[in-house]
Each structure stands twice: as C-alpha cells, then as structure tokens.
Amino acid sequence: MGDKEVKEELSRRGYTDLLIQMGRGSYIPSKSEGDDDSIAVDYFTFSSSIAEYLRAASLVISHAGSGSIFETLQLRKPLIVVVNEDLMDNHQSELAEELTDRKHLYYAHPQTLCRIIADMEVESLTPYHPGDATPVAKHINRFLGFAED
C-alpha cells in the first residue's frame, strides 16, 4: 500500500493535515499545501519535545516503540501503531497486539495501514490508565529495610 492511498484515506476520513517526523532512513516525503481536497503534508527530522506535536494531533500514527506508544496514550490521543517486523524485536509487536486487544490503540503493518485507517472507529478506543507502582515500591522498600516516607 503506497503513501498516496494512505493520504487519500486520511482525507476521506476528514483529516486535513499530515505532519511527519522522519527517522534516519532515506525516504523523504513530498510536502504539499493540501489543495483540491487533498491532505496538506509537512515533515521535520527532529524535535527535542515531540509532546507539543502529540497534543495538537487528532490522530497519531507511530512506530512500535514503547516510549512513543505510552506517551501518546497518556495524552489520550487515538493511535495507530505501525509495526515493521524487519526492523524490530518481537516484544514491540507483542506490546502493540496486547494494547490492541485491550482496545487502547490500532495495530497495523505497512501493507495494512490504509485498511486500518478506513476501518477504525476512534470512538470505540478505551482510554489508557497507567498503573500506580507506589504500592510495589513501598513493599520493596520495606523488604529492603528502608524507612517509609
């Protein structure tokens, strides 16, 4: 599935802008202004704080890194995680599958991204609530003999 089809599907779903954070690869996206019912495309290579971009997004399409996943979910943003099985360890795929099963995000491969965008129902996603590690930390501290706060 090509990026043209993905852009068309995003536009069909009502998205008007696509902002891409590029990695270290050789692919360079084509910028566009979004004329004639097409989606506007822009990109950047690095940001010291991706959070501002995530907060402004109405949909995030991300790689399967756990940091990217949980940062997006904690901001309560709809998320599609695209797993490239050639470039990552299986634990990333397992994390994406588990969070999909829990209805926190959508999980795709590059060749299924367009279909996932077409079929997704953002309203059906369940907000992610991070766990509280405080009780476990207190128990470990007591076991090790540290004073409680």
UniProtKB/TrEMBL annotation:
One GO biological process term is: dolichol-linked oligosaccharide biosynthetic process
GO MF annotations, alphabetized: N-acetylglucosaminyldiphosphodolichol N-acetylglucosaminyltransferase activity
Question: What are the coiled-coil residue ranges?
Answer: none
**EC code(s) of this entry:** 2.4.1.141
Residue ranges annotated as transmembrane are none
Q: Which GO terms describe its cellular component?
A: UDP-N-acetylglucosamine transferase complex
Describe the location of the Glycosyl transferase family 28 C-terminal domain by residue ranges: 7-139
InterPro entries in the record = Glyco_trans_28_C, UDP-GlcNAc_transferase
Q: What class of enzyme is it?
A: transferase
Q: Which UniProt keywords apply?
A: Glycosyltransferase, Transferase
How is this protein named in the record?
Answer: Putative N-acetylglucosaminyldiphosphodolichol N-acetylglucosaminyltransferase
